Amino acid sequence: MILETVSQCNDFFSVRTLNPLASVIRLPAVKDIPGQLQFGFNALLVRGRTDFQPTCLGRKECDFSDGALVALQPNVQVDPCIWESGKEKADGLLLCFHNRLFNPCLKGKMSTRYSFFRYGIDESLQLSLRERITLEKEIDDIENELCWGFDEFSCTILAERIRLLLDYVSRFHKRQFILRHDRNQKLVNRADQWIEDFFRSGKARYVPLPTARDFAGMFGCTSDYFNDLLKHETGKCTEDYVNSKRISFAVVQLRKGDRDIKDVAADLGFPTDQVFCSLFRKLRGESPEDILSKSGAEFLN
User: Fold this and answer.
1) 172-183 average pLDDT score
2) What integer is the mean pLDDT of 233-260?
3) Is the distance from CB of 251 to CB of 265 less than 8 angstroms?
4) What are the CA-CA distances from residue 35 to residues 77, 81, 84, 135, 214 (Å)?
């Protein structure tokens, strides 16, 4: 079943529409949720702590267990496992909202600022008690604003309240990366080895550079989750991280003193040696010629 609008969603869950752009649905009052649902808007599901949590939500041994948050992007079929509660009724709070509510507050920024909407269900946020209470309070405040009615300030206040909630979710995802540091560092080490093998093999001459999608396929996660994980662990997005390794490998090759700049550039997949030199100077603060001259000086000494 496809629910294109918030109003359709409210009708489906038998909830009164207070604003056609946003709604808060308290799931304990909902009896039956069909397995195949698709929303035409963003949604956040905050589940409370129960003795039962679906394994599909991806809780790890290092995670909190006082609740979970599932972020749902528009026009993607919802995995029915997120509603499972081990009892007759689902539990939790469901916040639904259209992106255009944020115009001009977040126009054009939703996809980059809140990448967790594109995470997989098994990459859902695992909540501590304090975090769950914080999110529930923010959703209560959103619901109170929806009940206020309409005036010239309604959309601005509502958008800011939802933005604040999303910023809390971003904060808690960062915290989850911290708790998963040891586990995630192993993935980074494996990625390092893969990148090194890629450049050593000479594949860069004829194969595109590794991307977040490539690593995601290797590690069984979404590309956005891997990109955020890598940025948390290294401070660099996937593209910048691969390029830094690329230039580091170039330095090693140039220091050998038996290859010229054009050959090294081609071996690392650069279209021209000018592009190679430009990126080299940007990342190293020196030119490839500087490396060659130092290598030559060391050889003479």
Assistant:
1) 97
2) 93
3) no
4) 10, 8, 10, 26, 31
